[in-house]
Q: What sequence folds into this?
């Protein structure tokens, strides 16, 4: 009788411990996926920030060139007449 009880407890313990290890493995897998996604998000933020800087530089050049063209046009128009 004690042997049966011992075997039942041992079987239950083994079953529960296997389940926990699977659960821990699943948790670790989810943590890894989470970290991978965070790294991808950070990488995306860096790329977006870089693109914004490039766009700002281009906008500045466009405004500067536009002002220069306007200035030249003001000088050219009186000469056409």
A:
């Amino acid at each position: 009788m004690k042997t049966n009880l011992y075997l039942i407890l041992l079987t239950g313990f083994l079953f529960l411990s296997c389940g926990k290890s699977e659960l821990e493995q699943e948790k670790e897998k989810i943590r890894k996926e989470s970290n991978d996604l965070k790294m991808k998000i950070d990488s995306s933020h860096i790329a977006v920030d870089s693109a914004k800087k490039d766009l700002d530089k281009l906008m500045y050049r466009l405004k500067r060139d536009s002002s220069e063209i306007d200035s030249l046009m003001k000088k050219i128009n009186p000469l056409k007449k």
User: Anything to note?
Assistant: The helical segments are 2-80. The radius of gyration is 35 Å. The mean pLDDT is 86.
